[in-house]
Amino acid sequence: MEFRFTPEEEAFRSEIRTFLRPELPPDWGQQAGVGALGEGSDARWEFLRQFQKKLAAKGWLTLGWPAEHGGLAATHMMQVIYNEEMSYHRAPTQLGVGPDRVGPTIILYGTDNQKQKHLPAIAAGRGLRPRFPPDAGGRRRRFLRHRRPEDMDFTRAQG
Question: CATH code at 12?
Fold first, then answer.
């Protein structure tokens, strides 16, 4: 019995590596994905958004989705290779939960209208991300603070 990747699988692995080399900042892997862009900075946020669009253009955000819904219908092994390479290089894979949670849920349980409305946006790497109102300085908030008032039995989200 042979336990090797097929030539197609090895070619896919090579394609991912070739893609990542110029796309990730040089110190990305050594800095746990933070690197020169800084944790939570506007430059990092913009990099992540642009990187996600590039993944979407290659169809990698929706790798395992059926082709009729905008995916590549990749085999389980191709998905394993993708996840393995992205993890090894500490590459960001997606923003939000659209491609791996919301999209598959809509594919399985959504109406035709929901599929037509939401799936193309998710596959393109846009839509279904939280929309945060701007703060006093006009910047979009991306983090919420949670606190529990002492006299209440619930948590209030602020941000």
Answer: 1.10.540.10
Average pLDDT value for residue range 66-83: 95
Exposure of 49 in the CB half-sphere (CA atoms within 13 A): 10
Taking a C-beta distance cutoff of 8 angstroms, is the pair 64, 114 a contact? no
- DSSP line for 61-98: TTTTS-GGGT-----HHHHHHHHHHHHHTT----SSSI
DSSP classification of residue 30: T
3-state SS, residue 120: helix
Question: Distance (Å, rounded) from C-alpha 105 to C-alpha 146?
Answer: 28
Total tally of structural domains belonging to the chain: 1
Q: What is the pLDDT of residues 4-62, one digit of tens each?
A: 999 999 999 999 999 999 999 887 766 654 544 556 677 888 888 899 999 999 999 99
Query: pTM (2 decimals)?
Result: 0.73
- 158: how many CB neighbours lie within 10 A of its CB? 8
